[in-house]
Amino acid sequence: MLPGCIGRSTAKASRLDRHRREGGGPVRVLVVEDEEAPAEIFHDFLVALGHQPIVVHTAEAGLRELRSARPDAVLLDIHLPGMSGLDFLRLVQTSRIPRRRHLRRRHRGPGP
Q1: What are the angstrom distances between the C-alpha of 6 and each of 9, 13, 55, 89?
Q2: Parent domain of 53
Q3: Beta strand 73-76 pairing with 52-56
Q4: Does some domain include residue 7?
Q5: CATH code, domain with 29
Q6: Tell me: the pLDDT tens digits for 22-36?
Q7: Residue 53 belongs to what H/E stretch?
């Protein structure tokens, strides 16, 4: 764990750790982030955890990488220039892009 970081005790972190322990190798994480500073932070953090980040700066580039690199997970910014992160999700959910796991979409905005 990185110094000064909060412990990774969530179920998702445990699944990623189990994947690595079972010989699955590093987890390939597609990072779709248009701002350079957060993209670099995500990249460095994922590398420090032993994962393999694939960083792109647009949703369109993310779709290309999703098809070609077949990542294990996606870290997606919702507010992207051009195609938004939500549009990206809609396209992936309705396309024939092979997926390893279900995509989950959580909305934590105002409302009932």
Answers
A1: 9, 12, 23, 29
A2: 25-94
A3: unpaired
A4: no
A5: 3.40.50.2300
A6: 666 889 999 999 999
A7: strand 52-56
| DSSP-derived 3-state class of residue 13 | helix
In a domain, 11, yes or no: no
**Any domain includes 20:** no
How many domains does one find in the chain? 1
Measured in whole angstroms, how far is the alpha carbon of residue 47 from the centre of its chain?
A: 13
Contacts for 67 with CB less than 8 Å, ≥ 6 apart: 97
- pLDDT tens-digit profile of 47-104? 999 999 999 999 999 999 999 998 999 999 999 999 999 999 999 988 877 665 544 4
Residue labelled with tokens 């959580």: 106
